[in-house]
Amino acid sequence: MKIIGITGTIYCGKTTASKIIKKNYHAHILNADDVYHDLIKPRKDLYYNVVNAFGKIILNKDNFEIDRKKLSKIAFNNIDKLKTLNKITHNNIILEIEKKIIDIKKKDYDFIIVDAPLLFETEFYLKCDKNILIYCSKRKKYERLETYKKNILKREKFQMDFKSSKKLADFIIFNNKTKIDLENNIKKIFTDILI
Asked: Global pTM?
């Protein structure tokens, strides 16, 4: 069972690529953001660690869950706060993904896809058999989600740039066209991976 890492900057299409792989190949998707969201639910250790670091201001007043939008706004507007959040969360997310991989390997899948925006930054790519970088132009990102242009720019500042990322990737997909083009590119890559 091969572990394939998929990464790319925000709104480049990595989650769409993961879904295409799942549809065409016998693959289980592990989304790092979903793992993170699960780990910061109330009554979990990471929940208390994040609340202790950022204060009750990040809590939703109705259900006391962490309001991820509030937390993101604080973290992505202050480099020190973002470093604090990453220090608290990254190792926990990686450990949880590793645990999930052990369980998934007991099942009958051909691939485990790890969809992670910080695959290279956290060095999790070293644990993957192959890594795919999804890339698209800023213009295309803005077309996809015009209203969040500022948010994209803020988050991208904290991700590895394309020049550095492409050196670590086994495959690169330029996702500037249609979903059909993306699917065709994935099929070409998986032809190589399956050999």
From this structure: 0.88
Q: Is the dihedral of CA 39, 44, 50, 55 positive or negative?
A: positive
Q: What angle do CA 3, 5, 7 make, to 5 degrees?
A: 170
Do residues 114 and 104 touch, judged by C-beta distance below 8 A?
no
Overall domain count for the chain: 1
Give residue 145's pLDDT: 67
Task: Report the amino acid identity of residue 3.
Answer: I
Helix (H) or strand (E) holding 4, with range, is strand 2-7
Q: What is the CATH number of the domain that holds 16?
A: 3.40.50.300
Single-letter residue type at 73: K
pLDDT at site 148: 55
Q: What is the residue range of 151's domain?
A: 2-193
